[in-house]
Amino acid sequence: MYSEKVMDHFTSPRNVGEVENPDGAGQVGNPSCGDIMKITLKVEDNVIKDIKFKTFGCGAAVATSSMVTEMAMGKTIDEALKITNKAVAEALEGLPPAKMHCSNLAADALKAAIEDYLKKQNA
Fold first, then answer.
1. Could you confirm whether 33 is annotated as catalytic?
2. What is the pTM of this model?
3. Whose CB has fewer CB within 10 Å in the chain, the N or C terminal residue?
């Protein structure tokens, strides 16, 4: 049902927790399944230097959160904004159709954290 990559990121998630004094934070949720994801990040010279997540949800939600943080780490803000829901699912070698909404949450949480960072820069 789940790929080895999904199981790896679920059983050994990367970047779990919260960035201390984050430059940006974003939280999204899906009321139909109850999954909630929060991503915090630290940015230096327009590059994501640290990123962490906290997720309440199923194994696929944890795996997509872990994968999206790995995909965004070290990327510029513009590069990270281009990470799509589809790219997260593909990086995990696919998700069952019933769990595709989880990858949508991961990319949305990343975008929300980046938008929070950008809003603070323009304040």
1. yes
2. 0.93
3. C
Can you list the alpha helix ranges (DSSP code H) found in 53-99? 59-72, 77-81, 85-91
> Which amino acid, residue 115?
E
First to last CA, the chain: 46
Catalytic residue among 102, 107, 110, 112: 102
Going 52 to 31 to 81 to 83, the CA torsion angle's sign is positive
**Which residues lie below 8 Å from residue 41, measured CB to CB, with a gap of 6+?**
19, 22, 23, 24, 25, 48, 50, 51, 52, 72, 113, 114, 117
Question: Do the beta carbons of residue 116 and residue 49 sit within 8 Å?
Answer: no
Report how far residue 3's alpha carbon sits from residue 50's, in angstroms, rounded to the nearest whole number: 27
Which residue out of 16, 25, 33, 118 is catalytically annotated?
33
Q: Which H or E run contains 24? A: strand 24-30
pLDDT 10s digits, 22-72: 999 999 997 777 889 999 999 999 999 999 999 998 889 999 999 999 999
